[in-house]
Structure formats: structure tokens, C-alpha cells
Amino acid sequence: xxxxxxxLDGRTGHEAGRALLAALYREETGLELPxxxxxxxxxxxxxxxxWHFSVSHTPRRAFCALSRRxxxxxxxxxxxxxxxxxxxxILSPGERVQFDAAPDKRRALLTFWVLKEAQVKRTGDxxxxxxxxxxxxxxDPRVTEMDGCLVAVIx
Length: 155
Known about the structure:
CATH 3.90.470, 4 helices
């Protein structure tokens, strides 16, 4: 699995993400980026390839993950405003217990959010069972800080 990020530098998140994907793919395979198709649930993929990818962007950065396994990535800027009332709607009962006990509720909600989004991107299932149909941990090692963002990558 390879992960990369870049500043948008005047590009849209889509443009920067696509450029990152092309660079990662070329680095890993030595080939130019193949055509991308969209599955019924909206997940982009390389037809006929065993390479998988996921792209996320924030207002300032783009992130890309490339793997031989199904993968999802999501990122949120650490200084982003967060509506803590969302916890009622998006957290499972187990996640809510962790959230209520967390000293930094804003970061806790961001952690759960990036995990849930990365999972949805990995499966390509869209919003079915989402968002409170998951049960993640605030200590999940798949969440890290990267370039001023909280980033989750799920294979």
C-alpha cells in the first residue's frame, strides 16, 4: 500500500487527487494511469486490474492510497469546525460511549468520521448501513496525522 498527499495549489481536489493517483500508479507499476470506471455504487476502479485506489481531499490538500487490495482513504483538516451534535446521528452505541468519555470531543468525532468515510470508500457500498452501522475504536491504528489532517486508511 502506498499513500501520498499534496497541496491543491490552485487545483480542484479532483484535479490534485487525479495527479497524485497518476504519480503513485506510475511509481508502483512503471505505467501510465489506465482508464477509470465507476461501479454501480459510485466507487471508481481500474477495469481488469488488480490495483485498487481511493482519493480524498480537503479544502487545502489531496490524499491518495493505492493498493493491491480494496482500499478506502478519508482525510479531514485538524482545524476544521465540527458540529458535535452530529455524534447523535452518526455514532454507534459503542462509539458513543467512547465519544462521551473522550477529553477532546472534536478530535474524537473527526476520528470516527474519517474511519466511517474510509470504510464506505473501501467497500463501495455507499450509504447502506451508514453511518452508525459501524463500531470503530478511537484508538484505531489506521488513523494518523498527516500534513495537518487526520487521515484514515482502511484495507
